[in-house]
Fold:
Amino acid sequence: MTADLLFYIFSTFTLACALAMVVHRNAVNAALCFLLALVGVAGLFVLLEAYLLAVLLIFVYAGAVVALFLFIVMLLDVKGGRRSNFTKSTLVAGTGAAALLAVGLLSLHTHGRITATLPAGPGVGASLKGYAYQLFTTYLLPVQIVGFMLLIAMLGVIVLSKRHAGMEDVK
Amino acid sequence: MNIGLNDYLFLSALLFALGFFGVLLRKNTLVIYMCLELMLVATTLALVAFSRYNGTMDGNVFVFFILTVAAAEVAVGLAIIVALFRRRLTVQVDELNALRN
Structure:
């Protein structure tokens, strides 16, 4: 089955890139690993027949968000930072979270009652028409709210990056 | 063995866990922010998989909104980080302790 093989290839690629992003000391390399992980996730979206979302993920995340991250990392010129020193609370939180995750994954695999069979026919996410219909009927109000939120975010960013009187920068 | 919904959920949980441990372990605010984005992408993967296996459109539309909100969130968050850097000249979380005590 080529689809299964592709799933394994994309998932190992994504996981390896995400792991490299988490452990890399250099922030620029972490951003580039994040970019590769996003490409892997976009491949998985294509396997799930959500073609529009795969393209959007590449455009919005890989194109805009990662570029913004790289821009800020280079602008601030920060060093990667020291190796993190484990505090006791971090260790406890990490162990607890890992245990919870292990229990959750185990229960998913043993008691998973979700039907794992694909519905017949092509996926509903494959057609552009479906998105347009949903966005302009059921989700019309959220679309308007999200548009307004983008406007507010733009104004907020402009206000945040202005130099205010009385707030001197550190020289 | 056929790839099913469980495998996608498993992968999504693993990606989410990687992002979570990144948030816990890293000290650089920018990298922490990237790990937060990784967690968001992991949840979108789960939503798309649910949508595909249920044969409904709603998960895909939710991912649409998540992408929009994430883009706005990244812009605002990075502006905050830049403003913070201009005031304090650092983005390491253990040096940003002005509100402690």
Helices of chain B lie at 5-25, 29-54, 58-88. DSSP finds three helices and no strands in chain B. The mean pLDDT of chain B is 88. The two ends of chain B are 56 Å apart (CA to CA).
